[in-house]
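PT: before anyone asks, these are the final sequences, not the draft ones from last week. 377 residues across everything. Please model them as a single complex and drop the result in this thread when it's through.
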Amino acid sequence: MHELSLCHSIGQIVRRHAEDRRVTVVHLQVGQLRQVVPDTLVYCWGLVNEGTTCEGSVLDVDHVPAVLECHDCGATTRLEEMAMVCGTCGSTAVAVTAGEELLVTSIELQEV
Amino acid sequence: MGRFHRHDDGTEHDHDHDHDHDESAHDHGAPEHVEGRDVGDMTGYETGTERVQVLEAIFDENDRVAAANRADFAEHGVRVVNLMSSPGAGKTTLLRETLVRLQGKRRVGIIEGDIETSIDADRLEGLGASVALVNTGNGFGGECHLDAPMVRSALGRVPLAELDVLFIENVGNLVCPAEFDVGEHARAMVYSPTEGEEKPLKYPVMFRTADVVVVNKIDLLPHLDVDMDLFRRNLAAVNPDAHVLMVSSKTGEGVDAWLDWVAGA
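LR: through. Structure below.
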């Protein structure tokens, strides 16, 4: 739903690093807890790039699962079913250690 | 949301993709999906390209502006509450009740986010509060949330130096507003029991982000089959720390407890 504004932000970051060079691929990390619809993101990416150095570039979305660390038993478990409970002991004293990523990790530029 | 895909390094990946995969958790519904990614055909781009590391969070720019907003709020000693809900849960009615009760006691400002129209902002006029409208329509059908730059653009139209409390009434939406820090001190969610008990499980990011969940329209409860204990269990599953307030903006029940929360927010 906010993929369009995300794509605007991604475009700004990418073009700042690309410095007028043609961009072929943009690598993203998107955490499971981010409410991003990948297909919509790819669709919007095509929309916002017309006439820019990113036109025709590919968005490569790398999904990161959510991981919880338990303060009680110390276990590190995957988040399942969106319940914020430790997968080992059931404690709710957990912290999210992965799954909230939303970043541009790298870009690929055409050789000049 | 995504296919599961384990990352032990947490940062950069090469295309050989040699890190550990849990294949059983992958969704290979679409044949073009390769290795849990959303684009399949990446053949040929390895040659003649240079890879540049970026490692920049997409929300960095928003968060920088949010920090600037927060600094301005601190400078003027204004408490700021970001009010979120689905459309029709009763944000504006709760705000109206709030203004009626705080009139002459506390100085209140409101930043009102709406995709189009000033209907909500008009409903809040005449109650002693400064109301600044932010229409988020931008030609693509309208943004579905307020972000930090939009709030910043409205700050010139609310007299921060003369306010005690500023409410930011976000766009009615249970998804996008949760993602954008606008510089607020606390997040309040208004939930209407007519939305069903399962909403926290369907919109966990929104319910997880709320400091307080105002269960509004409780005057309707005798007429509904909704199981509020189940709602509370679902809420606790995604946000064990959420404070819950039972309120009816219509009868006024619970509004004082809401005002107490705002005062200490």
